[in-house]
Amino acid sequence: MKYLTPLALFHELLKTKVRERGRLLGLDVGDKYVGLAISDPHNKIASPLSVLLRKKTNIDLMASDFQSLISELSLMGFVVGYPFERGRARTAPDALHVKLFVDDLSKTGKLEDLKYTYWDECFTSKNVELLVKPLDLHPVLAKTITDKFAAVGILQGYLDYVNKKVELEAPE
Description:
It is globular and about 50 Å long. The strands form two sheets. Strands 1-8-5-2-3-4 form a six-stranded mixed β-sheet. A two-stranded antiparallel ribbon has the order 6-7. It is α/β, with parallel strands linked by helices. It has one domain (about 1-170): YqgF/RNase H-like domain (Nucleotidyltransferase, domain 5). It has helices at about 5-15, 60-75, 95-105, 125-130, 140-170, and strands at about 1-5, 25-30, 35-40, 45-55, 75-80, 85, 90, 115-120. One of its GO terms (biological process) is rRNA 5'-end processing. GO terms for molecular function: hydrolase activity; nuclease activity. InterPro entries: RNaseH-like_sf (IPR012337), YqgF (IPR005227), YqgF/RNaseH-like_dom (IPR006641), YqgF/RNaseH-like_dom_sf (IPR037027).
């Protein structure tokens, strides 16, 4: 796995021919689950995809799941939610578990060609929790919805930012 800055990841995507252009997968990495969101083929809109169970013992299985998603959905890269604090990465345990997750995935060797970037996950889960709470859903269902839509928030925030930047960079 290769880290790229947020704009560099998008520029890599834009270098490919439109017909061959891949999509992006947003990840909301939690202690127990990883929420997934997928971009549309034009990389403008994020949609919820699924939730993967996260265990230290199943990282190899998760890497295989990601391999399948990469080929099935023509994924080009991951946008991983990361807890930033005023533009700087936090060293809190929640930031550490995201970094360790990416490191563990990388160590499997199954995702060597994959590019990824980090994107601020600030309040994504909290915003979704506030919307889901009044629905009075079963706790497991509420958690699943929260994780998927937190991933949507991460990916959509990234897509909005990079598309706007690219639009501003374009010569008139």
